[in-house]
């Protein structure tokens, strides 16, 4: 029986295709069919990702002083539209306005519906609007751009032209099956929240210090949450790529380094956009920015390029306020998928207010050292992780207390946002998923922060599904992975998966339909600066470390330094004692699983070519500690 189970797990790692893939290949780029709601302007460039300021939109570039006529989208009651201008590199932005106008055919003439302007030297951002359309018109819409003078190097942009119809909530691709919640009901809105670096073990409800996370704990209790959810890579970029695609890192190939032009694999945003959802994201840049292709499938993707320097702090309050404002303005118009990401608990730990500092001081009183109110992150972590200048044990305890203060601040923002969404007319029927991309370490195994080891302190995260009236509160101790989020969302909606996914639907547990079959969880670490420096190698050396864990055991294999270890998780949850010699059968099975995992990469697509990293992106990533 064990042999059959092992063979089944190994087979699951090999590439497979859905019975009816819902996308088509276009050269080397996998793309989904266009949703019927998108409006394309004749004479414009092909719809593509256009960046204006710190945000991207699916948009059309058009000539200055141009007109484009399109048929009125049948049944549409309103039009979502963004306007902006692109400035050619090396050009000086002029102060002469560019005017944008939308008119509707009316008898023998045209009736203006919308007008606004962009001043290139001031308005280097997208401007977003909702335009009401005539109820009974079946004529044409005209899109115009005008300027009183020639503006060399200025190109007008119409972004995210989305026609919203009276039946928008049922528009789009037909579901592949009856939604898991049952019944022919409108699909819910989806809000996916990623709290960067939020380790499950530091929440009070998971055994962390008392009083740190009362509101998050209450939200988890009102949700269906998983007590043992693990990420597949301990850094932001690779982990979010797995979250968006449902693929292991070894299959999506997104590890780090230079930006890449686009995600090469279909994402959950692709599928939802094709099903009639408006797809929107508010992030805090860094490794979750559109520079790294995460805007694939999103109509709007706001990076919120705030000041990234050595004193960088996340901006959870501002980011979630923007997300709430979007729902308030647009949420009632069409079903939406909203991704919200904050770096707030990521290092450096710089406490926002007196309440957060009080939490840190209560956990760690009478501290008199260098980290009174903040821990600077990359300025000291790399030396510690390379074992060239170690952080003292007393200071490590203070770091953990400051981190708890960061969590307590987010604890006052995220649950309030979720409850606020439910109070809005456009957000009442909304499924909210709360999770994180990785955890954090505080010297438990000689390293700090994340991206240096595959211990569970860096892999264990919260995962909760909150949908009152559809998902009853509860919890599961089943071993689950971050790659399971995509198939779970799509299963709840009755939508097909986008080809292959490595994750599985958690719906049987979430909807109390039965236990989840036991399945191992995988993680990997391609490179780690501290490990590379510690071993006298270049900072970008390949350490090629892999881990697999089951309900009872965890196995880790590493190339640099070379080792393999087996941990008995039930007797040793802290992963402190190697028991490989004591359990030869379990060691053999784990080796087989990792061999299959590594071998499955050969049948995956090769990574897409990377783009050169500009200085601004490099500095933002250096401020977050992702570049030395």
List keywords for this structure.
single chain; Jelly Rolls; Alkaline Phosphatase, subunit A; 2 domains; four-stranded antiparallel β-sheet; 28 strands; 25% strand; globular
What features would you describe in this structure?
Helices cover 24% and strands 25% of the residues. With 628 residues, the protein is of the alpha+beta class. The protein has 2 domains: 36-167, Jelly Rolls (Sandwich), CATH 2.60.120; 189-524 and 606-623, Alkaline Phosphatase, subunit A (3-Layer(aba) Sandwich). Strands 3, 4, 6, 9, 11, 12, 13, 14, 15, 16, 19, 22, 23 and 24 form a 14-stranded mixed sheet that branches. Strands 5-10-7-8 form a 4-stranded antiparallel sheet, with no helix packed on it. The chain starts with a helix and ends in a 5-residue tail after the last helix. 48% of the residues are buried.
């Amino acid at each position: 029986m064990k042999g059959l189970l092992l063979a089944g797990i190994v087979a699951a790692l090999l590439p497979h295709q859905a019975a009816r893939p819902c996308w088509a290949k276009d050269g080397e780029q996998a793309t989904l069919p266009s949703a019927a709601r998108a409006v394309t302007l004749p004479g414009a460039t092909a719809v593509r990702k256009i960046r204006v300021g710190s945000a991207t939109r699916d948009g059309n570039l058009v000539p200055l002083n141009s007109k484009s006529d399109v048929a009125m989208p049948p049944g549409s009651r309103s039009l979502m539209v963004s306007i902006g201008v692109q400035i050619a590199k090396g050009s000086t932005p002029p102060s002469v306005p560019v005017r944008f106008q939308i008119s509707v055919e009316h008898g023998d003439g045209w009736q203006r519906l919308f007008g606004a302007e962009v001043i290139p030297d001031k308005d280097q951002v997208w401007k977003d609007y909702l335009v009401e359309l005539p109820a009974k018109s079946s004529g044409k819409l005209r899109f115009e751009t005008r300027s009183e003078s020639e503006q060399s190097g200025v190109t007008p942009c119409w972004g995210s032209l989305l026609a919203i119809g009276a039946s928008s909530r049922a528009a789009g691709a037909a579901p592949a099956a009856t939604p898991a919640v049952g019944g022919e009901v409108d699909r819910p809105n989806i809000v996916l929240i990623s709290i960067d670096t939020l380790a499950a073990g530091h929440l009070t409800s998971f055994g962390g210090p008392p009083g740190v996370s009362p509101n998050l704990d209450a939200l988890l209790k009102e949700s269906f949450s998983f007590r043992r959810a693990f990420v597949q890579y301990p850094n932001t970029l690779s982990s979010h790529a797995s979250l968006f695609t449902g693929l292991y890192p070894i299959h999506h190939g997104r590890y780090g380094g230079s930006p890449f032009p686009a995600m090469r694999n279909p994402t959950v945003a692709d599928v939802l956009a094709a099903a009639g959802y408006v797809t929107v994201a508010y992030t805090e840049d860094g490794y979750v920015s559109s520079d790294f292709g995460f805007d694939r499938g999103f109509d709007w993707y706001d990076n919120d390029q705030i000041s990234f320097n050595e004193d960088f702090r996340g901006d959870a309050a501002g980011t979630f306020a923007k997300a709430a404002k979007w729902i308030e303005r647009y949420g009632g118009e069409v079903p939406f998928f909203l991704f919200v990401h904050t770096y707030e608990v990521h290092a450096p730990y710089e406490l926002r207010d007196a309440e957060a500092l009080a939490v840190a001081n209560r956990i760690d009183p009478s501290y008199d050292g260098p980290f009174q109110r903040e821990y600077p992150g990359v300025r000291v972590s790399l030396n510690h992780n390379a074992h060239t200048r170690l952080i003292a044990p007393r200071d490590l305890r203070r770091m953990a207390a400051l981190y708890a203060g960061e969590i307590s601040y987010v604890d006052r923002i995220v649950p309030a946002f979720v409850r606020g969404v439910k109070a809005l007319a456009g957000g009442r029927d909304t499924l909210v998923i709360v999770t994180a991309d990785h955890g954090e370490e505080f010297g438990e195994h000689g390293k700090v922060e994340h991206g240096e080891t595959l211990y569970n302190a860096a892999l264990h995260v919260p995962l909760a599904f909150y949908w009152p009236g559809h998902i009853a509160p509860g919890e599961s101790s089943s071993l689950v992975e971050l790659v399971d989020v995509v198939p779970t969302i799509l299963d709840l909606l009755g939508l097909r998966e986008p080809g292959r996914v490595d994750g599985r639907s958690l719906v049987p547990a979430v909807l109390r339909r039965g236990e989840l079959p036991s399945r191992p969880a995988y993680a990997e670490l391609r490179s780690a600066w501290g490990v590379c420096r510690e071993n006298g190698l270049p900072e970008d050396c390949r350490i090629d470390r892999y881990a697999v864990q089951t309900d009872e055991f965890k196995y880790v294999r590493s190339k640099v330094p070379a080792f393999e270890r087996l941990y008995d998780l039930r007797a040793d949850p802290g992963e402190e004692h190697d028991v490989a010699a004591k359990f030869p059968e379990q060691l053999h099975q784990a080796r087989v699983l990792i061999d299959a995992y590594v071998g499955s990469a050969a049948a995956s697509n090769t990574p897409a070519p990377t783009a050169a990293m500009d200085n601004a992106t490099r500095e933002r990533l250096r401020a977050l500690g992702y570049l030395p």
